[in-house]
Amino acid sequence: MRAFIAKYHLKGKNVAAAVSGGADSLALVLRLKEAGCKVVALTVDHGLRPESGTEAAYVGKLMQEKSIEHHILVWDAPKPQNGIEEAARQARYRLMLEFCRRRHIEFLATGHHRRDQVETFLLRLQRGSGVFGLSGILPLSRRGGVTLIRPQLDEAPEDLKDYLRQQNIRWIEDPMNRDDDFARVKIRQFLPRLAEIGLDEKRLADTAAVLCRTRLFIQELVDRFMAAAVRFWAEDAAASLSYKKLTELHEEVARPVLGQLITKIGGGDYPPEAAELQRVLTAGDDFKGCTLGGCELFIAAKRLWIVPQDKENRLMNKVEWDNFAAAHPEYRNAGLPYKVRRALKEKLKD
């Protein structure tokens, strides 16, 4: 933990920590404080189990004993009938990120550890992911304007439990971690079989780490290309670039370029599937536009334009554009396609 804090210069910084009451998250928040961070603990009560409120209160009591500020965030929205695990995860991050933005907290820490990394690697292997997926969980990433940090990715879960045992701290076991209806739980149960043939957790985590280094190299190439070839309009109202230059890139660079542009403009958490991106990249002269990842993609003046998808297909007349252009004269003579004008007007309407 201290090495992570030193590497990323986090000592003395305000850090929110996601604390469910499980061993990994309790170890996380206590170790962050020990390492010199100014920690705020956040517990999300999903309301999915009768005991969730009691568990959140237990975390609050423990945090009070440790002189750590604590907040319970309640997911009180209607719960979906299907995909509850993913919906709960999305709600959890939304609530915590909203809290961080309100409090101007730049960092949100999660308790992901080495076994989480291994399970993620195997889940993505099962789905046929490429280098970006198989590189696993990153130690740092950006989401919703906040930097997510995972300081315990190199830690074994049993070591985190031993840390709590030494302090006589009780943790909460989530029954969902034993529910083999979930793919992640099935993989966890299969890990001992893999260890028998030499594919133990450390070996698999080390493999993900090697792929992560490859990912970071590719990301450097992606960043260079985007800096040189992509124009953003009003930050994230739209993006444009030469379709020819994009398709001339090596596909292992072109796919993340396109995926990251769609994620930025569409506001999603993840890029579209690799196969969907590949169809755009290989269409050539046959590409007539598409909707993907909450975006509309189309060609105009030999450039690929990406704008947020307008499901209502709102119209904008000449008077509206003239009024907008009077307030933003830098766009009046830019020769922008209609959909880009509409996206700019929507983005800058306030």
Q: What is the fold-level CATH name, i.e. the topology of the largest domain?
A: Rossmann fold
From the spread of the alpha carbons, the general shape counts as globular
Succession of helices and strands: HEHEHEHEHHEEHHHEEHHHEEEHH
Number of beta-strand segments: 11
Which regions contain 5 or more consecutive residues with pLDDT less than 50?
Answer: none
What is the strand content?
15-25%
Q: Architecture of the largest domain, according to CATH?
A: 3-Layer(aba) Sandwich
- How many helix segments? 14
Mean pLDDT: 93
Tell me the Rg in angstroms.
23 Å
Helix content: 40-55%
- The CATH top-level class label of the largest domain: Alpha Beta
Whole-number total of structural domains: 2
Topology (SSEs and partners):
Elements: H1 2-7, E1 14-18, H2 23-34, E2 38-45, H3 52-65, E3 69-74, H4 84-103, E4 107-109, H5 114-126, H6 131-134, E5 140-143, E6 146-149, H7 157-166, H8 183-196, H9 201-229, E7 231-233, E8 238-242, H10 243-248, H11 251-266, H12 274-282, E9 290-292, E10 295-300, E11 303-308, H13 318-327, H14 338-347
Parallel strand pairs: 1-2, 1-4, 2-3, 4-6
Antiparallel strand pairs: 5-6, 7-8, 8-11, 9-10, 10-11
Helix pairs in contact: 2-7, 5-8, 5-9, 9-11, 11-12
